[in-house]
């Protein structure tokens, strides 16, 4: 038996979430290369908030165990790469949406979806970083690939006090960039400066409709907000700059013109963490293991138990959560 959060769809299409004891026989079948993992830690992400609250059609199969990431130890494996005792991480691949996810004490997944947990990280460190930190690193790698190097100019991070934003600020600053953080929470300015932000701007600077072209400022942008915020970031990016977009906290719309792209050669790069290639995942996690230390984990993350996750998850949607929430599935 193991404990798991289970989501079910009620007759009125709303979502019911409960903490249950399940038999191992309930774990979903895996057609090829299945791996059973004793989950040590998971986390709460924006998508988990949507799934548990039922405020967006994230879940594609019912019943569902939510949790888009987890870290743990392999218990059994029919996959050639993994053996019992291996420490592993999973991010994305549709877990918590179409395949049972990480907010449980046990998981059964395709071994191709797993990445080895690099030293010196432990499972709780890995989930303090989680999908948010992993996505932030993918964004940093996207800027680097386009030649945006430290010293090239200021980098804007939107949604900076959230999980992706917090890690983006810290990773950029530790890599030598000058970071400007945008947040809707004025009280978090000191927190963002502690992470490495050189300047903190209010969310209102970017959240309303703006001009198609604005004063050039940013050499690069990491945006987790979308909508008018992303449009204004593009409109104020310098000639040849790069904008990495990875989220939609403000909305899925993108009300901009082609002006930044055809007059300033701005590049808008989409960054997806769910289906990223194995090579990019491994590179991102190896870099995170070198860049993230206990002081950063302590500043960004807090830990809760599995029973608390149902109540806490929806608060992420209102933008009231700072940084990362790690879920100890055995507590």
Distance between the termini: 15 Å
What coarse outline follows from CA principal-axis ratios?
A: globular
Please give the count of helices: 10
Spans where pLDDT lies below 50 across 5 or more residues: none
Helix content: 25-40%
Largest sheet: 7 strands, mixed
- CATH class of the largest domain reads Alpha Beta
| Tally of individual domains | 2
Q: Give helix and strand order, one letter per element, not per position.
A: EEEHEEEEHEHEHEHEHEHEHHEHE
Radius of gyration: 20 Å
Describe the overall structure:
This protein has 331 residues and is of the alpha/beta class. The chain has 2 domains: 2-117 and 294-328, Alpha-Beta Complex (Quinone Oxidoreductase, Chain A, domain 1), CATH 3.90.180; 131-270, NAD(P)-binding Rossmann-like Domain (Rossmann fold, 3-Layer(aba) Sandwich). 28% of the residues lie in helices and 28% in strands. The protein contains 10 helices and 15 strands. The longest helix has 23 residues, at 123-145.
Please give a quick description of this structure.
The chain is of the alpha/beta class. It is built from ten helices and 15 strands. It folds into two domains: 151 residues, Medium-chain alcohol dehydrogenases, catalytic domain (Quinone Oxidoreductase, Chain A, domain 1, Alpha-Beta Complex); 140 residues, Rossmann fold (3-Layer(aba) Sandwich).
């Amino acid at each position: 038996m193991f404990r798991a959060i289970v989501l079910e769809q009620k007759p009125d299409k709303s979502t019911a979430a409960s903490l249950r004891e399940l038999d191992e026989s309930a774990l979903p079948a895996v057609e090829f290369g299945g791996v059973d993992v004793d989950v040590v830690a998971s986390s709460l992400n924006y998508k988990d908030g949507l799934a548990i609250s039922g405020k967006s059609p994230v879940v594609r199969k019912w019943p569902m165990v939510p949790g888009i990431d987890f870290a743990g130890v392999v218990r059994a494996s029919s996959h050639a790469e993994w053996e019992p005792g291996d420490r592993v991480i999973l991010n994305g691949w549709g877990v918590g949406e179409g395949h049972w996810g990480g907010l449980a004490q046990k998981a059964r997944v395709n071994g191709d979806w797993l990445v080895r947990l690099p030293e010196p990280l432990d499972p709780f460190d890995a989930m303090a970083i989680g999908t948010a930190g992993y996505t932030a690193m993918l964004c940093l790698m996207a800027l680097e690939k386009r030649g945006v190097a430290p010293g090239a100019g200021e980098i804007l991070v939107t949604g900076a006090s959230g999980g992706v934003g917090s890690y983006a600020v810290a990773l950029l600053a530790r890599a030598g960039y000058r970071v400007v953080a945008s947040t809707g929470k004025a009280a978090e300015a000191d927190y963002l400066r502690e992470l490495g932000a050189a300047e903190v701007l209010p969310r209102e600077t970017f959240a309303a409709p703006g001009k198609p072209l604005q004063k050039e400022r940013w050499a690069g942008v990491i945006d987790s907000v979308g909508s008018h915020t992303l449009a204004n970031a593009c409109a104020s990016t310098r000639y040849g700059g790069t904008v990495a977009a990875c989220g939609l906290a403000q909305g899925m719309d993108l009300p901009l013109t082609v002006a930044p792209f055809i007059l300033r050669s701005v590049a808008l790069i989409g960054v997806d963490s769910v289906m990223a290639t194995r090579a990019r995942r491994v590179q991102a996690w190896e870099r995170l293991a070198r860049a993230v230390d206990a002081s950063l984990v302590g500043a960004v993350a807090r830990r809760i138990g599995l029973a608390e996750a149902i109540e806490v998850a929806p608060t992420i949607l209102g933008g009231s959560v700072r940084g990362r929430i790690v879920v100890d599935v055995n507590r």
